[in-house]
């Protein structure tokens, strides 16, 4: 999919809300992008679109936030502060790769080898001005029927 231009934080949130309609329990979304590229804003929109009953904030210090939703749980992971494989192993992220959760992982570079084969990739990058962002969503590979 070609990148979509977001011209504001509100548009980034709206894109996340629209993307949420394609998600199902068990899905994992890996988010990539530099600091300030809009990952948390996008996740806020996804959470709204999924009917999460809490305002999504970046779990930079807690690392993992769980939000109740009508289907189960939205899990928001922020791996920015993870510096070692042992810290990553202690988190037990794989436990969230289940049919009761939709898992949204910021700074997914830290867990590339742990991600399930079938996962979404969302790549966010800074646009030409301070408010704009480019957002590219790659759907998971589908198994041939």
How would you sum up this structure, described in words?
The chain has 145 residues and is an alpha/beta fold. It has one domain: 3-Layer(aba) Sandwich (Rossmann fold). The chain has helices at residues 9-20, 39-49, 85-91, and strands at residues 4-6, 28-32, 64-69, 72-78, 101-106, 120-126, 133-138. A seven-stranded mixed sheet has the order 1-7-6-2-5-4-3. A hairpin with a 6-residue loop joins strand 6 and strand 7 (133-138). Helix 1 crosses helix 2 (39-49). The mean pLDDT is 90.
Total separate domains: 1
What's the total count of β strands?
A: 7
CATH class value: Alpha Beta
Spell the H/E element sequence: EHEHEEHEEE
What distinguishing features does this structure have?
145 residues; 28% strand; alpha/beta; seven-stranded mixed sheet; single chain; Rossmann fold
Secondary structure topology:
Elements: E1 4-6, H1 9-20, E2 28-32, H2 39-49, E3 64-69, E4 72-78, H3 85-91, E5 101-106, E6 120-126, E7 133-138
Parallel strand pairs: 2-5, 2-6, 4-5
Antiparallel strand pairs: 1-7, 3-4, 6-7
In short:
The protein has 145 residues and is of the alpha/beta class. The chain is built from 3 helices and 7 strands.
């Amino acid at each position: 999919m070609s990148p979509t231009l977001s011209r504001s934080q509100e548009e980034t949130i709206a894109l996340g809300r629209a993307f949420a309609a394609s998600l199902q329990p068990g899905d994992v979304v890996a988010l990539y992008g530099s600091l300030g590229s809009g990952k948390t804003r996008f996740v806020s929109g996804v959470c709204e679109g999924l009917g999460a009953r809490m305002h999504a904030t970046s779990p930079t210090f807690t690392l993992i936030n769980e939000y109740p939703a009508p289907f189960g749980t939205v899990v928001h992971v922020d791996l920015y502060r993870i510096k070692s494989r042992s810290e990553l192993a202690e988190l037990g992220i794989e436990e969230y790769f289940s049919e009761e959760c939709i898992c949204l992982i910021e700074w997914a570079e830290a867990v590339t080898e742990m991600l399930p084969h079938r996962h979404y990739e969302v790549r966010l990058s800074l646009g030409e001005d301070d408010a704009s962002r480019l957002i590219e969503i790659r759907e998971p590979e589908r198994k041939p029927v």
